[in-house]
From TrEMBL:
Keywords: ATP-binding, Cell cycle, Cell division, Cell shape, Cell wall biogenesis/degradation, Cytoplasm, Ligase, Magnesium, Nucleotide-binding, Peptidoglycan synthesis. Pathway: Cell wall biogenesis; peptidoglycan biosynthesis. This is UDP-N-acetylmuramyl-tripeptide synthetase. GO terms for molecular function: acid-amino acid ligase activity; ATP binding; magnesium ion binding. Carboxylation is probably crucial for Mg(2+) binding and, consequently, for the gamma-phosphate positioning of ATP. InterPro entries: Mur-like_cat_sf, Mur_ligase_C, Mur_ligase_C_dom_sf, Mur_ligase_cen, Mur_ligase_N, MurE/MurF_N, UDP-N-AcMur-Glu-dNH2Pim_ligase.
Length: 493
């Protein structure tokens, strides 16, 4: 595709060079530029793509897209100036990859907690209905026969459009994706019109340098999804829903437990506990007033809420009821209240809970199963708000019978400082809750298995689906599921 064709999608002005130049790819990282790539200069918190434009040119870039002129570029190299580089990248990518979202049923999910689980539940329901589905989110991108890790929950726009094109070319007819507030703010999903947008819940998170200036801004960006979708499915129980729907342009469908809603679950759901499984059975009533029975292989009220969002989405898409029941019953989400198969008289679950609200929700749900003891293994990531550490410590001390405090991804921050903040939170939450501090996470997992007893539930939280551990400047292989299973086998007589 030549540059002139691409520029029709933007407000770009050609400052120099030939608009007939052929563009073979799009790129925003100068280190990845190959001959024929159109390099888009993205401004960032720590680096600015404009500073690397000359490096991109030397690597064979077909042209440069920038917000301001860059000195020192070859005179014959096409240079295009745009108002917003990030928005332009999204517009260019949509045109370059042939508007792939229009070939798919697009379902976008936003909220603080539950995005990943809700996405997987919807994908399981769609699959049970015979649809070929792609997933994009915290757990990476996948479709039948393909899986890849991602650096961001919502990929950069050119990566996202490339993946959507590959997904459609692979025969997928639906895409379920997590839409983060930063994905909306940073124009990663600009130009995509969603068939369904889903709101799970909202609590303070991602507030700080490089993210959002305030909770109000965080909420405002979440709300943008409901001006870019045909139908909005929202949690009627969440106190922020009214604000999320400010200026919405979509048809609204509600779900919930406590308040009247289009899809409402009865509050008296049954807890299911079997070896290697914690689940829930519940009844939900739709707009037609008919109660329907459902079952999930994951525990707690929050899981019922996530399932209600999936049920409402299935209804909007006119999927068969049997597919909804089958999809929900069989869905397993990696690293989200995921039971670890062990030959043991206790239950171990992995979860991604890495802030106070998520930890409180999870531990409250597990406490409802009346374990002999509720043991939690957790740490907190470095380079993140200290408030998160205090909150995690408080929640775990209030709700667990034993806390095993350890490392998470320290990211170069001294682990001793992180652990000290967690200890402060523990004292605030409940100074009488026993805890042990084991800096090495592998040893902390071993300790949990050595000290768990019959009927206990052990929650290993913070990393969930992750398979690496960032310790200082090193990134180490670290799959908690494998570590737990291997150690447990070694313990067998």
């Amino acid at each position: 595709m030549n540059l002139c064709e691409l520029l029709q999608a933007t407000d770009g002005v050609l400052l120099q060079g030939d608009a007939r130049t052929e563009v073979r790819s799009l790129c925003y990282d100068s280190r990845a530029v190959t001959p024929g790539a159109l390099f888009v200069c993205l401004p960032g918190l720590h680096t600015d793509g404009h500073d690397f434009a000359r490096q991109a040119a030397a690597a064979g870039a077909a042209g440069i897209v920038c917000e301001r002129p860059v000195a020192g570029l070859p005179e014959d190299l096409p240079v295009v100036q745009v108002t917003h580089s990030r928005r332009a990248l999204a517009q260019l990518a949509i045109r370059f990859y042939g508007e792939p979202a229009k070939r798919l049923t697009m379902i976008g999910i936003t909220g603080t907690k539950g995005k990943t689980t809700t996405a997987h539940l919807i994908a399981a329901v769609l699959t049970a209905a015979g649809r070929r589905v792609g997933l994009i989110g915290t757990n990476g991108v996948c479709w039948p026969g393909f899986r890849q890790a991602l650096d961001h929950t919502t990929p950069e726009s050119s990566d996202l459009q490339r993946l959507l094109r590959q997904m459609a070319d692979a025969g997928c007819d639906a895409c379920v994706m997590e839409v983060s507030s930063l994905g909306l703010k940073m124009d990663r999903v600009t130009g995509i019109r969603y068939d369904i947008g889903i709101f799970t819940n909202l609590s303070p998170d991602h507030i700080g340098p490089g993210e959002h200036a305030s909770f109000a801004e965080y909420r405002a960006w979440k709300s943008v999804l409901f001006r870019r979708c045909r139908v909005g499915i929202v949690n009627g129980d969440d106190l922020q829903t009214e604000a999320i729907l400010t200026q919405h342009t979509c048809r609204v469908v509600t779900y919930g437990i406590d308040r009247p809603a289009d899809w409402r679950a009865a509050p008296d759901f049954a807890l299911l506990r079997q070896p290697g499984m914690l689940g829930v059975a519940f009844t939900a009533t739709g707009p037609d007033g008919i109660p329907r029975a459902f079952q999930l292989a994951m525990p707690g009220r929050f899981s019922v809420c996530n399932a209600l969002a999936a049920i409402a989405a299935a209804d909007v898409l006119h999927l068969p009821g049997t597919a909804v029941q089958t999809g929900l019953r069989t869905a397993v989400v990696e690293g989200r209240v995921e039971p670890v198969p062990l030959d043991a008289p206790f239950t171990v679950v992995l979860d991604y809970a890495h802030n106070e609200a998520a930890a409180e929700n999870l531990l409250t749900a597990l406490r409802a199963y009346q374990p002999a003891r509720l043991i939690v293994v957790f740490g907190c990531g470095g380079g993140r708000s200290r408030v998160r550490r205090f909150g995690m410590g408080e929640a775990c001390a209030r709700l667990a019978d034993l806390c095993i405090v350890t490392e998470d991804n320290s990211r170069g921050e001294p682990l001793a400082d992180i652990l000290a903040d967690i200890r402060t939170g523990l004292r605030r939450g409940n100074p009488d809750t026993p805890f042990v501090e084991i800096p090495d996470r592998r040893q902390a997992l071993y300790y949990a298995l050595d000290h768990a007893g019959p009927g206990d539930i052990v929650a290993v939280i913070g990393k969930g689906h992750e398979t690496t551990l960032q310790r200082g400047d090193e990134t180490l292989p670290f799959c908690e599921r494998e570590i737990l299973q291997t150690y447990m086998k070694q313990k067998q007589p």
